[in-house]
Amino acid sequence: MRERYVAAIDQGTASSRCLVFDRSGRVVSIAQKEHRHLYPRPGWVEHDPEEIWSNVEHVVGRALAEARLEPTDLVALGIANQRETTIVWDRQTGRPVHNAINWQDTRTDHIVRALAAEFGQEHFRERSGLPLTTYFSGPKLRWLLDNVPGLAHRAGAGEVLFGTMDSWLIWRLTGRHLTDVTNASRTLLMSLHTLDWDDLLLDAVGIPRAMLPEIRSSAEIYGRTHGLLAGVPVAAALGDQQAALFGQTCFAAGEAKCTYGTGSFLLLNTGDRPVLSRSGLLTTLCCRVGAEPPTYALEGSIAVTGALVQWFRDNLELIGSAAEIETLARTVEDNGGCYFVPAFSGLFAPHWRSDARGVIAGLTGYITKGHLARAVLEATAWQTREVVEAMSSDAGMSLRALRVDGGMTANNLLMQFLADVLDVPVVRPNVAETVSLGAAYAAGLAVGFWSDTDALRANWHVAAQWLPNMDHERVERGYRKWRKAVTRATDWLDEDDE
Question: Could you give the C-alpha distances from 297 to 124, 266, 324, 403, 456, in angstroms and in order?
């Protein structure tokens, strides 16, 4: 019998990738291509959607070629994508009307403040599970309608279409205008309870329903591809962090994972009930498989983790590669009393302070570049602890272990410090590509390639584990100093700042 495979497109913040997996969840081939980040003004971050689509076509072709496979060898294609990044394109021509506005972009701060003043935070949180911030797609879409000439009229007439990256790729692959519940739940426009666009939220933000995609399950056949993968069913779409939770096989309430990439995202499965946070977390969809009931999650989103290491490398030029930061940090025993709060575009969970900006606190003449390197790494662990404490408070669940993935998990010093700070085991799976694997798993389930989630759990194996071993008092003293440093970062922006 001929071997069959599942492919996954992972359209991320920094690059687009295609991975091919076999039935055991093993990576058969991988191809990747980076795209440009565009910075028209301070705080503005954009991508070129056509460049991203071209890169997706390239990596799909290369991944198949490297594995010596044909499209007929694939049973399904799944999509995982950077969330909240907002695109509007012409229904007839398929051409974007503007660059994609990236999830990190903060240009909508004035829109968010106006919405908060008129409607209040609870109007949005109770329906969507989300706080009013610049992070989500709805305000970005409102900005486009306000600033692209004639776009608001065209949107009301249904001449242009809105989507996040999953919708853009599904449109280009199948010609259908769809999204899934996980991505729709990040727009500030979907009801957590009906899993449909909420008319009260649409009216508040000023978004015409005619331009919105149909919301579907995370794992079902959306359509068949044309072009390079002609005939292959597109059978899953998940926001990248929900895909990682799926790939980590965190299918039960109380299981959690954190992905450490450009930013970091910690998700806790809360089962079949949405838990509304009072601690600065997001209530979001875990996934929905076919016609099964949806599952929900609490999420803590940290804006800057891996990006801080990149900044340390590229802007300060104290290291030549990201991997060198661990070597430099190991030249000292501790951080020397130095703490780095990387609020480059405000603070995300659990603070949600768009007025914050980055600070380095505790500087003395004793501090060396080694101490700075250690403070850079420790910032990721301290931010994770803030999120874990908020989750425990909201969900009434104590974290028993944290499953981790992403590029930063290769840093053993960071992973050990993370275990010390959280006081729980930190576990990395054998297959590190959990975002892509989750998209592949969901697509494979949709077409019957895997029978059920038990079959997926059987594929999960531990590659590395870190156990806490730092003195409790030392950890708590460091956390106290971290929280003091965070207070120094807030309330930085003034009304007349651009």
Answer: 17, 10, 35, 15, 20
Peptide bond between residue 96 and the one before it cis (omega within 30 degrees of 0): no
**Does residue 395 register a pLDDT over 90?**
no
Contact partners, residue 128, CB within 8 Å, separation at least 6: 185, 187, 188, 189, 190, 191, 192, 198, 201
3-state per-residue secondary structure call for 84-105? CCEEEEECCCCCECCCEECCCC
Query: Would you say residue 497 has pLDDT above 80?
Result: no
- Summarised one tens digit per residue, pLDDT across range 215-235 is 999 999 999 998 888 899 999
Residue 209 DSSP class: G
pLDDT digits (tens, 9 = 90+) for 134-178: 889 999 999 999 999 999 999 999 999 999 999 999 999 999 999
**Residue 53 to residue 170: CA distance in whole angstroms:** 11
> Quick one: average pLDDT of 300-314?
91
Q: What CA–CA distance (Å, rounded) separates 114 from 254?
A: 37
Phi-psi region of 495 (alpha: psi -120 to 50; beta: other; left: phi over 0): alpha
Model-level pTM?
0.85
pLDDT in tens, 87-126: 999 999 999 999 999 988 889 988 999 999 999 888 898 8
Q: Are 26 and 436 in contact (CB under 8 A)?
A: no
Count Cβ atoms below 10 Å from residue 355 Cβ, excluding itself: 15
* Rg of the chain, C-alpha, whole Å: 22
pLDDT of res. 1: 55
d(CA 286, CA 302): 18
Strand partners of residue 296? 271, 285
**CB contact at 8 A, 98 and 148:** yes
Distance CA 377, CA 412 (A): 11
Q: What are phi and psi of 60, to 5 degrees?
A: -65, -45
**Beta-bridge mates of residue 8:** 19, 78
pLDDT digits (tens, 9 = 90+) for 273-302: 899 888 888 899 999 998 899 999 999 989
Would you say 176 and 198 are in contact if contact means Cβ atoms under 8 Å apart? no
Pick from 320, 257, 312: nearest CA to 286 = 257
Amino acid at 311: W
How far is the C-alpha of 143 from the C-alpha of 109, rounded, in Å?
10
Tokens encoding 469:
């071993």
Residue 273, amino acid:
R
* Closest to 377 in 3D by CA, of 424, 415, 429: 415
pLDDT average, residue stretch 405-423? 94
Quote the tokens at residue 3.
């071997």
* 280 within 8 A of 352, measured Cβ to Cβ: yes
